[in-house]
Amino acid sequence: MDSTNVLVVGAGPAGLALACGLREHDVPVRVIDQAAGPATTSRANILHGRGVEVLNRLGALGDLSDRAQHAISISYYVADKRLATVSFGKIEGKQLSALLVSQAEIEAVLRQRLAELGCNVEWGRELTGLAQQPDGVTATLQDGELHADYLAGCDGAHSTVRKLSGIDFPGVPLIDQWLLADVRVDWDLDRTGSSGWFHRDGLFFAMPMRSAENDTWRLMADVRPTDGEQPDVVDQLQQLLPERTGRTDAKIRDVAWTSTFRIHRRLADRYREGRVLLVGDAAHIHSPFGGQGMNTGIGDAENLAWKLALVAQGRADAALLDTYQAERRPLAEDVVRNTTANTKLMLADGPVARIVRDRLITPLVNLKVVQRRVTWIASQLWVTYRKGPLGSGKGPRPRPGDRVPDLDCRDDRGRPTRLHTELGGKWALLAPTATGLETLAPLGEHVVHLTPDQPRQESWLIRPDAHLAWRGTDQRALARWLDEFRSNGRTT
Ligand SMILES: Cc1cc2nc3c(=O)[nH]c(=O)nc-3n(C[C@H](O)[C@H](O)[C@H](O)COP(=O)(O)OP(=O)(O)OC[C@H]3O[C@@H](n4cnc5c(N)ncnc54)[C@H](O)[C@@H]3O)c2cc1C
Q1: Beta carbon of 101 within 6 Å of any ligand 1 atom
Q2: Distance (Å, whole) CA 128 – CA 121
Q3: Quick one: which of 274, 381, 370, 287 has its CA closest to 331?
Q4: Looking at ligand 1, which residue's alpha carbon is closest to its atom 30?
Q5: How far apart are the C-alpha atoms of 44 and 476, rounded to whole Å?
Q6: How many angstroms is it from 360 CA to the middle of ligand 1?
Q7: Is 102 touching ligand 1 by the criterion CB < 6 Å?
Q8: Is the C-beta atom of 4 inside 6 A of ligand 1?
């Protein structure tokens, strides 16, 4: 039977990022997808700070930063009255500001990186069954069987892997029907930002999409589903456009793509079942308001990749895999809660809720301090695993579990470099001398010694995902930490 170390099911952003992360650690990987080829449909179009950072660490940012629009803003209106404009500002210079770029382009750079790392997606291969044994998982595909030591279900919201593993996905629908169309429109709407209109019957959004001629728009609106045959999406949007925006002159033409979808909020009750793990939309779905879905999935993938690499290579006990859920599920809970609250606020059910939205809450987002907060929250750069099994709530910051920002440092030959450039496939020992490297030998080849430009006595051990693992000066304490980390998947 065909076999591999890790089988990744699903070549969306989460599966591709996971596969790149595993390959960076030299883990043999196969990636299968039921689709005949890459998706060209229109989905996510904002990559927030954390997503930019992760792609960069994976060597998969490519030229996205040059191609994308950096200044991202959205203006909210009631008819032609502008209530507020939210601008997603710059973080850490321009490096980590959000990028307006399509999911299809992001997937393309990830696939390219994966190919460089020696793996290509196997298209047209659908997983239909799986069985776990003590030493691995047998996946049934439409065209045969494949055995893997571990299997990652990155197969999206309707995950077959999740269902076959008996993992519940509790939650509720939030919005019954959204209309979406990528089109050209005859109007003079400002293309430097997105626009959203609040109307008593619902919302209407117009987002500029990057295209060769730079003249495409994504239009979105919520509607009440009707019984019987559904009217054409574009016909409905053409009717809603003047009603909700007050722009009676705007005419939709040249339709590139349409879709309708429901919005649910759901969270898997666990992320691991034996040798099967869930990643991305397979584990959590929520409202697209705030553009968090793809970003959260890419973050899941980075968190899991180095842990699965250590376990698959026999360098750590399988208990380490439980830290993936312990660190990532609380974040998904936050994302589901916040996106639900934002969506309900925007939909404002009833006249009182509409007054609160239009006169109190929305104008507040004009304040610079609120905009900085919105940018920071959306970026996910604040994510910490301090409260998780590998973290610590005590001591000076950064504490174990905290994200370590990109720092100037020198490599083992004294050449200037940046911390995050060295991570991704590697751990970093940021220390005045390389003494601790020997202690870290059980982690394998993937550890680099870096000297910080800011002199300090302490050593910092930084995980491949840029979170602090350990800090201190005592090598014996580092050895004890490593022992517990590898054998129990926790630290004290
Ligand atoms: C309109 C819209 C706008 C959005 N905007 C944003 C945004 O701006 N920012 C953001 O972060 N997120 C956004 N999202 C969410 C984002 O698109 C998803 O969170 C993201 O696609 C999830 O990635 P994934 O890799 O987990 O799953 P998916 O992208 O769904 O990929 C799953 C893959 O698995 C494959 N697959 C499924 N079943 C099987 C099987 N049995 N066997 C083999 N292969 C299988 C599928 O073919 C697919 O390629 C938006 C979503 C929508 C609908």
Answers
A1: no
A2: 18
A3: 381
A4: 156
A5: 47
A6: 35
A7: no
A8: no
Beta strands at 427-430 and 447-452: parallel, antiparallel or unpaired: parallel
Domain spans in the chain, listed from the N-terminal domain onward? 2-169+268-379, 174-264, 408-488
* Distance from residue 10's CA to the centre of ligand 1 (Å): 9
Taking the centre of ligand 1 as the mean of its atom positions, its distance from the CA of residue 419, in whole angstroms, is: 30
User: How close is the Cα of 233 to the center of ligand 1, in Å?
Assistant: 21
pLDDT above 90: residue 209: no
**Averaged over 303-311, what is the pLDDT?**
98
Ligand 1 centroid to 444 CA: how many Å? 33
Tokens representing 332 are 């998904």
Q: C-alpha distances in angstroms, 448 versus 368, 428, 435, 438?
A: 40, 5, 12, 11
Q: Please state, in angstroms and rounded to a whole number, the distance separating the CA atoms of residues 49 and 112.
A: 21
**What is the domain class of 174-264 according to CATH?**
alpha beta
Q: What is the pTM of this model?
A: 0.96
> What ligand 1 atom has the least distance to the C-alpha of 126?
42
Fold of 408-488: Glutaredoxin (3.40.30)
Share above pLDDT 70 across residues of the chain, in percent, rounded to a whole number: 99
pLDDT tens across 386-444, in order? 999 999 989 999 999 999 999 999 999 999 999 999 998 999 999 999 988 999 999 99
Omega before residue 398 within 30° of 0, cis: yes
* Ligand 1 pocket residue status of 402, Cβ below 6 Å: no
* Close Cβ partners of 316 (under 8 Å, ≥ 6 residues apart): 307, 310, 485, 486, 487, 489
Query: Kind of pairing, strands 2-9 and 144-153?
Result: parallel
CB 14 within 8 A of CB 33: no
| Residue 23 structure tokens | 């390959």
CATH topology of domain 2-169+268-379: FAD/NAD(P)-binding domain (3.50.50)
